[in-house]
């Protein structure tokens, strides 16, 4: 089975192609990213999306742009100071593509620091600065896959120790290979549970308004043969109360014992911004826990999603998306119950024309509702005082 790859980067040729996530799941096509302008547009339009993926595509879009300056030769190469200024301008532009996920601004800050460090050396040149930036962007891509694999393993270790045997899982948005450089964060934990044969069933929320769950997570789950069912966002509470079906007749195995979500930004106190609907899931989980239901609400994210400069969720900027993303849907036509897969996609309007629309893309889940945060460094579990501490696995 071919591996799903949102980001295809050729380190020899310095070319970048991204899987067009606006055309999935019906059309799988890659689009080239040749410079920062292409990277910015791909991030803003959500051709690429997911906190880690947008940071990596942003960084690599700068790498390919700078490489074409290197390839063009010495006439186009500026002094160290001019090169540094040019790169800073490009980074300042790039970071404005989307505001909520901290990964993009962490990446641009790191690249800016690399530029300044190299520019301050006695041997600095335009070329040496560019080479450092390219190497750093390439390292981000490599690190992300390793980090996600570690997140998957740590999360699966922790939850399996709490709940030995099989159980079901709920997740929202898309946090898999399509939202990262590979493997995934929350979906990485689900993947690891499945590989250990301890996942009974996963329920993926469709994740309105933009349907990352039904379009992308469902696509990954089908692709990976993970036992899964799609539900609408409003079904989660009923599902947790009484799961409809699973792959076994064992009621305990059918029970949802884990809700696992990604993160776009985790504030210093643990408050977490993630796809709109996450907060509602956390509130639901809290109710069931108070009723004695065995259940954990877990955030899975690389440490690049942790923002220690933001004290709490109140300071997180929530992106508002265009109104049409709530009231219009795009896909192949259905004729006589048959999806016309090969046909051109159509956009249809599903709301009353003229109605006002509010379309925040994210919400903030207060840390009080989160049981644990899984990063590549381990699992930080909330203690009685509300602080998150790494535990031994
Ligand atoms: O608006 P999106 O699709 O970029 O939002 C993505 C999410 O909210 C994900 O759950 C989060 O970024 C984690 S991605 C591993």
UniProtKB/TrEMBL annotation:
Catalytic activity: 5-(methylsulfanyl)-alpha-D-ribose 1-phosphate = 5-(methylsulfanyl)-D-ribulose 1-phosphate
Biological process, per Gene Ontology: L-methionine salvage from methylthioadenosine
Keywords: Amino-acid biosynthesis, Cytoplasm, Isomerase, Methionine biosynthesis, Nucleus
Pathway(s): Amino-acid biosynthesis; L-methionine biosynthesis via salvage pathway; L-methionine from S-methyl-5-thio-alpha-D-ribose 1-phosphate: step 1/6
Organism superkingdom: Eukaryota
Keyword presence, Cytoplasm: yes
Catalytic residues in the record: 264 (proton donor)
Cellular compartment(s): Cytoplasm; Nucleus
Function text: Catalyzes the interconversion of methylthioribose-1-phosphate (MTR-1-P) into methylthioribulose-1-phosphate (MTRu-1-P).
Protein name, UniProt field: Methylthioribose-1-phosphate isomerase
Organism: Geotrichum candidum (Oospora lactis)
């Amino acid at each position: 089975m071919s591996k799903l790859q949102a980001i295809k980067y050729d380190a020899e040729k310095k070319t970048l192609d991204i899987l067009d996530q606006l055309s999935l799941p019906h059309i799988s096509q890659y689009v080239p990213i040749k410079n920062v302008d292409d990277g910015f547009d791909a991030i803003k339009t959500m051709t690429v999306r997911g906190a880690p993926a947008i940071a990596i595509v942003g960084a690599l879009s700068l790498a390919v742009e700078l490489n074409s300056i290197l390839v063009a030769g010495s006439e186009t190469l500026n002094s160290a100071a001019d090169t540094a200024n040019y790169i800073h301008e490009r980074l300042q532009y790039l970071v404005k593509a989307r505001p909520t996920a901290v990964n993009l601004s962490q990446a641009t800050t790191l690249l800016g620091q690399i530029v300044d460090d190299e520019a301050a050396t006695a041997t600095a040149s335009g070329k040496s600065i560019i080479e450092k930036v390219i190497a750093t962007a390439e390292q981000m891509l490599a690190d992300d896959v390793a980090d996600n694999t570690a997140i998957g393993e740590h999360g699966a270790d922790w939850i399996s120790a709490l709940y030995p045997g099989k159980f079901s899982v709920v997740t929202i948005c898309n946090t898999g290979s399509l939202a990262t450089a590979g493997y995934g964060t929350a979906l990485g934990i689900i993947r690891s549970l499945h590989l250990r044969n301890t996942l009974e069933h996963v329920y993926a929320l469709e994740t309105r308004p933009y349907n990352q769950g039904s379009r992308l997570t469902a696509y990954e789950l089908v692709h990976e043969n993970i036992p899964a069912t799609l539900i609408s966002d409003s079904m989660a509470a009923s599902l947790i109360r009484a799961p409809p079906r699973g792959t076994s007749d064992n009621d305990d195995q059918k029970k949802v014992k884990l809700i696992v979500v990604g993160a776009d930004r985790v504030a210093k106190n643990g408050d977490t911004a993630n796809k709109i609907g996450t907060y509602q899931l956390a509130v639901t989980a809290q109710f069931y826990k108070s009723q004695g239901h065995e259940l954990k609400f877990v955030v899975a994210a690389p440490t690049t999603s942790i923002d220690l400069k933001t004290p709490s969720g109140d300071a997180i900027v929530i992106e508002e998306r265009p109104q049409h993303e709530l009231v219009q849907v795009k896909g192949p036509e259905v004729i006589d119950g048959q999806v016309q897969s090969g046909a051109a996609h159509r956009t249809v309007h599903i709301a009353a024309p003229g109605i006002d629309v509010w379309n925040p893309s994210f919400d903030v889940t207060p840390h009080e509702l989160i049981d644990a945060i899984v990063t590549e460094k381990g699992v930080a579990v909330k203690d009685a005082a509300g602080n998150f501490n790494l535990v031994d696995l």
